Amino acid sequence: MSRQSGMKPAARLYVEGALAPAAGVALDDGQAHYLRTVLRLEPGRQVLLFNGRDGEWLADIAELRRSGGVATARSQRRAQTPEPDLWLLFAPVKGDRVDWVAEKATELGVARLQPVMTRHTVVTRVNTDRLRSRAIEAAEQCERLTVPEVREPRPLPALLEEWPQQRRLFVCAEAGPARPIAEGLAGLPRAAPTGVLVGPEGGFSRDELDLLRELAFVTPVGLGPRLLRADTAAIAALALWQALAGDGDRRPPERFEN
Amino acid sequence: MSRQSGMKPAARLYVEGALAPAAGVALDDGQAHYLRTVLRLEPGRQVLLFNGRDGEWLADIAELRRSGGVATARSQRRAQTPEPDLWLLFAPVKGDRVDWVAEKATELGVARLQPVMTRHTVVTRVNTDRLRSRAIEAAEQCERLTVPEVREPRPLPALLEEWPQQRRLFVCAEAGPARPIAEGLAGLPRAAPTGVLVGPEGGFSRDELDLLRELAFVTPVGLGPRLLRADTAAIAALALWQALAGDGDRRPPERFEN
User: Fold this and answer.
1) What residues of A are in contact with residue B175 (Cβ under 8 Å)?
2) pLDDT confidence of A6, banded at 50, 70, 90?
3) d(C-alpha A208, C-alpha A157), whole Å
């Protein structure tokens, strides 16, 4: 990665538009506000852009208006690479814990965030727009080249019914028989399509656990002797998958300076 | 674990006093308020108590006053077991992220929380009392039999100087050479005394990384290609240690009901 100019790019932003040499790329209102008012940047300054398809690009800010703006893509800095095919299914938890899950799961490289309604789920409404914003922010900050897909909430039985049989589903089970997660992950081929399912604060119901244990694609796993909160369990399981079966042997891109 | 009465203990509390048959145990103001005003309990109801030394005990609430109260220990429900000897050294991060770290690290079984001041640490004051409260809360909720020790902040060089040489220190290094964390942990004897060191949001300085890499007890480890926030890195590294070198093969205590 060569340094194109003496000045470090001032921001890293997720955009919708195509990235190609000299392409004009629309910045939305929030991005224009952030660049103009928070970072106090002028047209001409460099930013990094990614859209989940075309890799990461250096771009010049061309125009910043009160509503929106435009950047001009200059040169590709990183090629697009596929992300690990990892889904997180989580029973929504209260307050800002669910936003925290979206942030951390994005940093830990999930491809899909799927809220799931279970028997003991007490949170009935999930603001998926807010989860999506939080996921975009986290992707911008953690050097990802993609943003995870945030799906609308679905009941657990429906998700299980349409589950792709070749995708293993690790269910974090605090009660009943379960393999230690490290053991469960050890047998998984590197980067195999995977799902991780974490229940609500009250845990899964006995019925749900019985149903899950009958499914050929399910591996119930344990995370040790302490009862983890749902958000902690999700983060722990994702970190373990990446380290043992994902891209944990790769390194972050070299940074411009330290 | 036999069920002593038809009623599930109404709370699980950390206490200072000794736990023995018929011992009167002081409850502090906050605990008395919680039992009396939040849970609306009366004397006679059962609670669970632990003090980090005598295991977990069933106890009857004997007295609840405006300031403090007393419970009477009845019978031991779980014997004291040693916790994994795991320390987390973390550069304090802003706002409530540092409280999160205390909560999650407690759930993930750390024995000691050590705030550490590094070159790029921007947070200068750490409210260790608040961290301690959060750690106690998390220990009560996650079925631990101990509360992690929360130490006062220390500069990195001082901590390294007095470091016990036989305790391996895994340093989460986002820049420069590092082993994938799963590989670094694979060679560790089960439950060996360990430290995990996580830098501040700006990362370690080049000097600090050079110094750390020269120390025989240090293993620099990587957590994959995404730049994790400091709090995410801490949680990921602790979860990995427990699963690969700690007590990840144990299960939570059986619960009273589901």
Assistant:
1) 252, 254-255, 258
2) low
3) 9
The verdict on a CB contact (< 8 Å) between A104 and B144 is no
Give the dihedral of Cα atoms B28, B32, B34, B40; nearest 10 deg: 170
What is the rounded distance in angstroms from the CA atom of residue A111 to the CA atom of residue A129? 17
How much is the pLDDT for B202? Answer: 86
Q: Which residues contact B210 (CB under 8 A, 6 or more apart)?
A: none
In degrees to the nearest 10, what's the CA dihedral of A85, A142, A116, A229?
120
Distances (CA, A) of B206 to A18, A204, B158, B173: 37, 47, 18, 11
End-to-end, the C-alpha distance of chain B in Å comes to: 15
- Identify the CA nearest to B233 among candidates B174, B185, B155, B169: B174
Contact between chains at A226 and B252 (C-beta distance less than 8 A): yes
pTM of the prediction?
0.95
pLDDT tens digits along A179-228 = 999 999 998 998 899 999 999 988 999 999 999 999 999 999 999 999 99
Q: Which two tokens stand for residue A142?
A: 């953690």
How far is the CA of B224 from the CAs of A143, B24, B158, in angstroms?
11, 51, 29
Residues of A in contact with B147 (CB under 8 A): none
Nearest to A227 among B143, B232, B247 (CB): B143
**CA contacts within 13 A on the Cβ side of A237:** 35
Residue A57: the pLDDT is 98
Residue A255 confidence (pLDDT): 66
Segment B177-188 mean pLDDT: 94
* ipTM over 0.90 threshold: yes
DSSP string, B120-145: T-------HHHHHHHHHHHHHHHT-S
Query: Residue A162's closest CA among A245, A235, A85, A89?
Result: A89
Chain segment B223-252, per-residue pLDDT in tens: 999 999 999 999 999 999 999 999 999 999
Structure tokens, A112: 């899909």
Are A178 and A228 in contact by the 8 Å Cβ rule? The answer is: no
- Residue pLDDT, tens place only, B206-224: 999 999 999 999 999 999 9
Domains and CATH numbers, chain A: 12-78 (2.40.240.20), 86-245 (3.40.1280.10)
